Amino acid sequence: MTRPSLNDLASFAAIANHRSFRKAAEIMGVSRSALSHAMIGLEKNLGIRLLNRTTRSVSLTEAGARLLAHLGPVLQDLDTALDSLADVRGTPSGTLRINANKSGAAILLREVVPPFLAHHPEVEIDLVSEGRLVDIVEQGFDAGVRLTEAVPRDMVAVKFGGDVRFIAVASPDYLERRDPPTAPDDLHAHRCIRQRLPSGKRYRWEFSKHGAEVIVDVPGTLTLDDNDLLVAAAARGLGIAYLPESFARTLLDSGRLVTVLEDWCPPSPGLALYYPRNRHVPSTLRAFIDTLKATSRK
Predict the structure, then answer these.
(1) How does strand 143-147 pair with strand 94-100?
(2) What average pLDDT does range 83-109 have in this prediction?
(3) Three-state DSSP class for residue 74
(4) Which of 17, 40, 120, 230 lies most in the core, judged by the most C-beta atoms within 10 Å?
(5) Which pTM value belongs to this model?
């Protein structure tokens, strides 16, 4: 038996963890055909099948599952050993992959990424912005960014950006035709611009006042999936929208939008960068967190 190369073993681990040649190829920075040839060669050298492949799925054989169980800790220890060299070199290097929602990515690009790259020119940041929640470990990310309340409990969360406040807004023209709501239940008598979450579910509006919480599945004839579109629709008088205050701030200041149910919309903990609690933290991520904390204190 020919001893397999470290690169082939790492490629196998990526395919096995993601159950996908495509995702593994993206992470490894190679083509799917190259990965396929590598796995054929690996299985031939070992004399045993590791992966069951179809045109639609990838699964582990019993031998593949056994190899992955032993290989995972070995590769993680290797990453830790290589990353420790950054302390000797005095500067982190490599790629830092972060998955963030749109508002989180915007804050990072505005406040954190510029000073970080200025001080760490040998680091490449791969910032993926999407609305849906993903398993950052399974998808090969070093960290994620979401609202603090949405961070999984087994993750370490580093808050930034301050509190966030969701507000209900409408145009003055819309409110001239209807009595403004004074309590969340009044929304049932209004046209509301509803929001579709990335999961496909429709978002139910959440309000709070003096410790009392009210969740309303609002009525409406228009459903959108983007906060900027919600703001634009509300400004055109199409109904009441509910979204983070930052997205509506400009139109509120100009008077094109006004708030309703103001006393039912208190601030809540905002965004957090999060990462696995029980895994090695690479030097690139540690340096990024230091920059994040430094900019948050200003």
Answers:
(1) parallel
(2) 80
(3) helix
(4) 230
(5) 0.65
